[in-house]
Structures are given as structure tokens and as C-alpha cells.
Amino acid sequence: MVxxxxxxxxxxxxxxxxxCDIFLKKGYEKTTMQEIIDGVGIAKGTIYHHFPSKDxxxxxxxxxxxxxxxxxxxxxxxxxxGNSLERMQQLIIRGADHDGSKDEMIDHLHxxxxxxxxxxxxxxMVTRQAPIYAKLIEEGCRxxxxxxxxxxxxxxxxxxxxxxxxxxGVYEWSRSDLERRIIAFPELIERQLGAPAGSFKFLHExxxxxxxxxxxxx
Length: 218
Known about the structure:
- Helices cover 74% and strands 0% of the residues.
- The chain is mainly alpha-helical.
- It has 2 domains: 8-54, Homeodomain-like (Arc Repressor Mutant, subunit A, Orthogonal Bundle), CATH 1.10.10.60; 65-217, Orthogonal Bundle (Tetracycline Repressor, domain 2).
- Helix 7 (115-143) packs antiparallel against helix 8 (151-165).
- 24% of the residues are buried.
- The mean pLDDT is 86.
């Protein structure tokens, strides 16, 4: 069989895309490196040249997913108008929008065999998103809209809370448990940022809508 010769970066990207598809559908733990090798159609030495272990390959997959999301986030940020609070509100809303392909990915991530992959992805998302929102918080402090001495830490805390505590794939809350947290989040965020009351009230509807959408998909 004649193998196609590809540039290293192109081959690496191909391995990541195939691995991502198999990890999501079969589960990370149940997937073998040989299945990925067969899926890409490469020699064993090639995959281990790029990724010495399955864990390192998973890390590459997660970075690829997050980088794609961050590209969309930064594109959205460049097109926003208004003060820092208004742009933060718009950015959060746009970041929550997702198409059918992302729905499928989220559904796969919520499968039991993907729990470890899911947690690591959420952690990477928080780490990459926080600095962008921290800059908006810093700007808001200069504008008199926010009042905090720790913009980055605030952003990390807020996104960790929202990403993890409202994710039904992480916590198996009852509907009433989730609702209590959704009600509390806007006030807690406003207090932490020193933002005007009601600034983050929109989060209640946003998170509720996302949860309803997830329930329908399930």
C-alpha cells in the first residue's frame, strides 16, 4: 500500500482530528492507539513520533478543540461595541451559542467513558478564556463599572464556577438544585466584580436555556 507523504504539521493535525472523533464516539479509555493508527492509515512509528503516549495525544486533541473555540471568541470580541460591561455581556452570550456539531461533541463528552476528557477540557477552557475576560474587567475598573483588585483571579473563579457547577455532565444535580445555583450566580458575580446590580441577570435565562436545550438533545 502506497502511503501519502505529508508535511509534519499536516500529519499531526490529521492524527488529532481522527483521534478526537474516535475518543468522543468510543470513549478515551476504551480507545487504543492502534485504532487511531488504523483510522489515519499511518505507520505505528509515525503516530509515536508526534505523540509518544495516548495521554499526550489527548492533550493535543483538547488543545485543538480549545484553540478552535478561542478563535471564535477572539473574532467575536473584535466585533463588539460598547463599554466593557456591555462587551462582556455580549461575549458571554455569543460564546454560549453553538451549532449542531458542537451539540454532538457536548453529548459525547457527557458519556461516562469521557468524564476525564470532559474535566480536562473544561479546565483548559477556563485557563484560556480567563485572560481575555480579565482584560475586560481591568477596563471596567478604569471605567468605574467594576471594582476589584484581582481581575484575572475573578475571571478564573467565575468561569470555573459557571463551567463546572452548571454542567450536568459533571454534577448530577436535580432540577431544583441546578435552579438554585442559576439564581445565585448573577448576584455572586456582581458582588465579586463590584458590578451594578442586575448586570448579570441575563445569565439566569442564558444558563436555563442551555440546560433546556441539553435536556431536549438528551
